Amino acid sequence: MASFATLFSLLTIAILSFSCSSQFILPIEKDPLTNLFYTSVGIGTPQHNFNLVIDIGGPTIWYDCNKNYNSSTYNPISCDSKLCPKFSGCTGCSGPFKPGCSNNTCAANIINPLVNAIFVGDTGNDVLFISHSKVSNLLSGCTESEVFTGEDVPLKNLPKTSKGILGLARTKLSLPKQLSSSSSHKLPNKFALCLPSSNKKGLGSLFIGGIPQQSSFFKFQLTKIPLVINPFSTAPIFTKGDASYEYFIDVKSIKVGGEILNFKSSLLSIDNKGNGGTKISTMKSFSVLHSSIYSTLVRDFVKKASDKKIKKVALVAPFGACFDFSTIGRTNTGLDVPTIDLVLQGGVEWTIYGGNSMVLVNKKVASLGFVDGGKKPTTSVVIGGHQLEDNLLEFDLVSSKLGFSSSLLLHNARCSNS
Ligand SMILES: *[C@@H]1O[C@H](CO)[C@@H](O)[C@H](O)[C@H]1NC(C)=O
Ligand SMILES: *[C@@H]1O[C@H](CO)[C@@H](O)[C@H](O)[C@H]1NC(C)=O
User: Fold this and answer.
1) How many CB atoms lie within 10 A of CB 184?
2) Residue 17 lies in a domain
3) pLDDT per position as a tens digit, 88-109
4) Which segments within 153-230 are labelled E, that is strand?
5) Are residues 317 and 297 in the same domain?
6) Which of 80, 91, 104, 105 is the pocket-test mutation for ligand 2 (most atoms within 8 Å of CB)?
7) Is residue 397 located within the same domain as residue 297?
């Protein structure tokens, strides 16, 4: 009997640990100064915790291996290794050896989209600790940030506590792809993101491998739309012929207060140079629109707002429409302002309510949280962080689909509920 009980509990443990390791859940925090989102991961031996900014369009994982950092489990990837992408180049360092200083090492491009420069680092592998599990051989870039001086440095414009970037793009080196390719984890190549609107209400979540059945988010029905591949790279550095590794969707038109905005609809398609279209980015705090889309949005939004007796006030940069907060009503989805709909393939709509369209710039003023991207942006519509908060998004790279919940506030839920 005793041995049966033991066997039973062993089985239970085996089943539990299987279901725990099947997905990874990382907490997401919002930095109030930069409005960027970051998570914490453990890397190396002894384990060192890094806050890394979440960049869904980021091709790699990179962190700052400054002069005080060392790890006994770090292995630099040599230039002639099969793991070293072609055309990467080599870096060298005469010692003392440590992460960030090794000889004959495969160079890593350290990309921070908030800086007008690309930095060089080393490609290496090390152990990663996430969700109470240990993952070996995680490939990442590391750079000694103190080596760079002057205006542009690798960590520029990131939150003060963040020491690198966690990339989730459609690349071999992104975190979801590496975890799904690792033989010990067998995860589907997908991830879900739920960005919190503020830290005061709790943390958001990044689910690698999809939303676990035990999660309270599992119950939300997601509307699925195709992810579009832009055949032309939108990266700061690429090889001719590369497709973009960022996530594009096919927005057909945009509505304000139920009426279609009037602008040249070709701006919403991707042309034969890869310009135009709509992508999703966590590195932009507010959605960025081509000037001619932006100006019609502002004009029509102001008109529809005035129909609701909402009073316009002086502009607060960088916004193009600001209102007297006290003249705006409340709903369960935030301020009661005209809705903005992204009309997608098949007539499906992604509705943006007040909670995602409006920004409280001070106690008296609420502004429309979209910004002007100028007349010649590469991508016409970049959906930014503020518009993604409290929405559950699942990027499924197996079926190449994006699932979205629309505002969780409609269901009296938030990303910070978990
Ligand atoms: C870093 O750690 C490795 C392995 O523990 C050791 O061989 C190396 O000397 C250390 N490097 C420095 C600069 O302390
Ligand atoms: C670095 O590598 C080169 C070529 O592999 C070798 O000739 C050189 O001695 C190495 N330097 C150090 C400091 O290990």
Assistant:
1) 11
2) no
3) 889 999 889 999 999 999 999 9
4) 162-167, 190-194, 204-208, 223-228
5) yes
6) 104
7) yes
